[in-house]
Amino acid sequence: MKYVCSRCGHEADTATRAAACGCGGLWDLDYRPPVFDPDRIDRSVWGMFRYHEWMALENETWRDISLGEGMTPVVPFGGNILLKMDYFMPTLSFKDRGAAVLIAHCRSIGVDKVVQDSSGNAGNSVAAYCGRAGIGCEIFVPQGTSPKKIAMIASHGAEVTVVPGSRDDCADACREKARREGLFYASHVYNPFFYEGTKTYIYEVYEQLRRIPKTVFIPLGNGTLFIGIVKGLEHLAESGCLPEFPRIVAVQSECCDPIAKAAVSRASHPAEIRPCPTMAEGIAIGKPMRGDEILAFIYKYNMEVTATPEAGILDARAALAAQGIYAEHTTAATYAAYLEYSRKNGTPPDSLIPICGAGLKSDK
Q1: CATH number of domain containing 145
Q2: Tryptophan synthase beta chain-like PALP domain spans which residues (predicted)?
Q3: How far is the C-alpha of 113 from the C-alpha of 281, rounded, in Å?
């Protein structure tokens, strides 16, 4: 198994500390999983690593790193909706799926300190798993990040650096420190091992339901869940498990929608935008680094992209909470997008929505 540059095709050992190829292209993994067979799921493992046969794992370091992430329930919500409860995780967000795999990789290659940028959830996950692995950690967060997310990150022993400006300014500052000091950039966007974790979301749904719902809503900022889900769906399709590819509806914020705007004209690159403040901080990414890859998937599978209305987020959050689902604002934005989509297009049958983060994390 090796890295392959998504731009020029250059190959590198996965033990490299380089965050990206010298040409600037991001790494992909040269890894093709075997055919998915539900009978081969390792049911001796209660968690997402029960799918280890189909994950790009270099060894069994994950056994010492895992905190039991995954195997989150699927809950009916109304007549047409299923909620995948991914805030039932060690750090209360779906990002634990990717962080567990990425930090297991870091420990495998002897990394002793990482830096990472985040709007909160990914930073908290990376900090927690670094604490578990005994790896030093500094997390960069943008100004305005929820104080509770910052407190959780610090509780795991990580240093927290708050960067003035936007989420993209935060990423720039983190990457500059990684470059300047030669530190490992444990990015949930750059590093493809992260997607080996997030793709287990779809394996779980398939195991739990013995099918994939007809319509899948996915929040879309940097694409960490989106890319993982698409990779998982492609694998299931190639394995003969899917009679047809589901309809995918990717959700952006109307205040930060570079992919949605690009998709209107079928552009190859994300649109140049100026992000506005939004409650959906987890998808407020003005310059998604894997934007070209995301757009290619959207066109390949004829996906839809919708921009969630800011005015609907609090009402959607309240509607979820009224039925026992206390989610953070970014998750509520996905449900708000579902409601708006239904209003415009009619209620889609058999829809799956991820509940990505717990509400207490985004409360000020």
Answers
A1: 3.40.50.1100
A2: 65-356
A3: 27
| CA proximity to 228, closest of 99, 114, 339 | 99
Name the strands in the sheet holding 184-185, side by side, starting at the edge strand that comes first in the sequence. 159-163, 136-142, 113-117, 184-185
User: 162 is in which domain, residue-wise?
Assistant: 96-185
d(CA 314, CA 334): 12
**Beta bridge partners of residue 160, listed in sequence order:** 139
| Single pTM value for the model | 0.96
Among residues 289, 96, 325, which one has the least CA distance to residue 200? 96
Instruction: Specify the DSSP element, H or E, that contains 336.
Output: helix 329-345
Task: Give percent above pLDDT 90 in the chain.
Answer: 94
Give the bridge partners for 357, in sequence order.
93
Do 161 and 118 have their domain in common?
yes
* C-alpha dist (Å) from residue 115 to 112, 138, 171, 194, 269: 11, 5, 10, 15, 27
User: Which residue, of 156, 185, 214, is where some domain finishes?
Assistant: 185
Amino acid at 9: G
How do 81-84 and 351-354 pair as beta strands? Answer: parallel
How many domains does one find in the chain?
Answer: 4
Output the pLDDT for position 167.
Answer: 87
Shortest CA distance to 293 belongs to which of 19, 97, 26? Answer: 26
Q: Measured on CA atoms in the order 137, 142, 144, 145, is the torsion positive or negative?
A: negative
Contact 131, 158 (CB under 8 A): yes
What angle, rounded to 10 degrees, do the helices at 224-238 and 200-209 form?
A: 50
Let me know whether 179 and 268 are in one domain. no
Q: What is 166-184 written as a DSSP string? A: -HHHHHHHHHHHHHHHT-E
How far is it, in rounded angstroms, from Cα 48 to Cα 7? 31
Low-confidence ranges of the chain (pLDDT < 70): 364
**Tokens linked to 228:** 């993982």
Q: How far apart are CA 64 and CA 52, in angstroms?
A: 14
pLDDT at position 319 is 97
Query: Based on the domain organization, do 84 and 112 belong to the same domain?
Result: no
268 Cα distance to chain centroid:
22
Q: Are residues 165 and 259 in the same domain?
A: no
Measured CA to CA, the distance from residue 349 to residue 82 in angstroms comes to 10
Q: Are residues 267 and 234 in the same domain?
A: yes
